[in-house]
Amino acid sequence: MLRGMYLTRNGNLQRRHTMKEAKDMKNKLGIFRRRNESPGAQPAGKADKMVKSFKPTSEEALKWGESLEKLLLHKYGLAVFQAFLRTEFSEENLEFWLACEDFKKVKSQSKMAAKAKKIFAEYIAIQACKEVNLDSYTREHTKDNLQSVTRGCFDLAQKRIFGLMEKDSYPRFLRSDLYLDLINQKKMSPPL
Hints:
This is Regulator of G-protein signaling 3. By secondary structure, the protein is mainly alpha-helical. Helices cover 59% and strands 3% of the residues. The protein contains 10 helices and 2 strands. It has helices at residues 19-29, 44-54, 58-63, 68-73, 75-87, 91-103, 109-124, 136-145, 155-175, 177-183, and strands at 5-7, 13-15. A two-stranded antiparallel ribbon has the order 1-2. Helix 1 packs antiparallel against helix 5 (75-87), helix 6 (91-103) packs antiparallel against helix 7 and helix 6 packs across helix 9. The longest helix is centred in the C-terminal third of the chain and has 21 residues, at 155-175. It is elongated. It starts with a strand and ends in a 9-residue tail after the last helix. 18% of the residues are buried.
């Protein structure tokens, strides 16, 4: 049987979270709870307030369950979802989507053309290092769009990848311990 996998009673293959995966996830998300103690850093009290204001309440995290858009609009939600995708080895989907969002903000036509080629080479080209799962029509359509680069040249590919995340990774994220812990967090009383 595959390491880290097991069959449930209904015969579905489920991933068992190992201690190493849990520790890795804790370390990845640790930046949200660590105090900034480097020289010249803000006092601990101010840093704690920043972290607390950044971490969502369980009510805010519950809103992420309404749509993938709401999740991606929240900085902490985006970071948590990205960490979750890393555990599933599918972070390239979100990275591509974010690269497309960033691409749309580029003003200069020459920078836009250079960035478009980079995005295509990194995510869309066959055998790309972070190749996303696109059908051949979308891949060719996007390649054709690079002949005359516009802000919308990745729109179809970005829409397809968003749909893939929305139907595949996002529902699993909503069932993950990572998300369930956030929505079930208890209000902790302040230390004395």
